[in-house]
């Protein structure tokens, strides 16, 4: 029985025109590097953003001081605040309707993200979503000790919604690390979605339960599971 679905935000349920990863790249390259957007997204997709910066820098095979990582991260946060002032944020197609239909079936909906809470709440506010009304809870990287691919955020989502068995949980996300997070939590399904950071072939490398191409497809996967175990 599926009791809870944990959705990633950017690229999965939120369309923010990729501004976060564009800003990550800009902040890193302002420090004297020349990483491409593809490199930044391939390495950093879905991760807590300080860790994403750390891993992108490490990919050049050189040693980097943690103080440099923190300086870039601090610059990134300032640049992102400025970008959000004029950013046009919208939901991914059918997100609200999908949440509503799932909750009507008695399935809890939680958003989780590699953003910190302040950033995530700004995105939610711009869309007009309200926690507790449009979905059940929000879990961010700053709420837990370990970010993706560790299962901490999913376990917190379960605790907040009273779900005890991870096999009753589905994780949905647009990056390999989202899929790995679901697998590490023991989720009943770990699904990739092609609306965001990574392509279907990239998502398949993480061995997801399935890859979907839009949020409405999820309903066809959930309904049989929900009905056969009710």
TrEMBL record:
- Matches recorded under InterPro entries: HAD-like_hydrolase_sf (IPR050155), HAD-like_sf (IPR036412), HAD-SF_hydro_IA (IPR006439), HAD_sf (IPR023214), PGP-like_dom2 (IPR023198), PhnX-like (IPR022468)
PANTHER family the record matches: PHOSPHOGLYCOLATE PHOSPHATASE, PHOSPHONOACETALDEHYDE HYDROLASE
**Superkingdom, according to UniProt?**
Bacteria
Q: What is the lineage of its organism?
A: Bacteria, Pseudomonadati, Planctomycetota, Planctomycetia, Pirellulales
**In its UniProt entry, what is this protein called?**
Phosphonatase-like hydrolase
| Species whose genome carries this gene | Rhodopirellula halodulae
């Amino acid at each position: 029985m599926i009791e809870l679905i944990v959705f990633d935000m950017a690229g999965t349920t939120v369309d923010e025109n990729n501004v976060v990863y564009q800003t990550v790249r800009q902040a890193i390259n302002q420090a004297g590097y020349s990483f491409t957007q593809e490199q930044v997204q391939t390495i950093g997709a879905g991760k807590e953003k300080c860790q994403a910066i750390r891993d992108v820098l490490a990919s050049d095979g050189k040693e980097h001081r943690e103080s440099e990582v923190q300086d870039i991260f601090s610059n990134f946060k300032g640049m992102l605040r400025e970008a959000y002032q004029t950013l046009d944020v919208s939901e991914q197609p059918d997100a609200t309707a999908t949440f509503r239909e799932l909750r009507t079936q008695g399935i809890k909906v939680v958003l989780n993200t590699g953003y910190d809470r302040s950033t995530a709440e700004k995105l939610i506010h711009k869309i007009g979503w309200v926690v507790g009304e449009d979905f059940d809870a929000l879990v961010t990287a700053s709420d837990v000790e370990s970010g993706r691919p560790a299962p901490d955020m999913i376990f917190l989502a379960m605790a907040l919604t009273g779900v005890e068995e991870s096999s009753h949980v589905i994780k949905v996300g647009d990056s390999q690390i989202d899929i790995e997070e679901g697998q590490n939590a023991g989720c009943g399904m770990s699904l990739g979605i092609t609306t965001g950071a990574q392509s279907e072939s990239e998502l398949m490398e993480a061995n997801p339960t399935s890859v979907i191409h839009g949020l409405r497809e999820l309903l066809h996967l959930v309904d049989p599971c929900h009905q056969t175990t009710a």
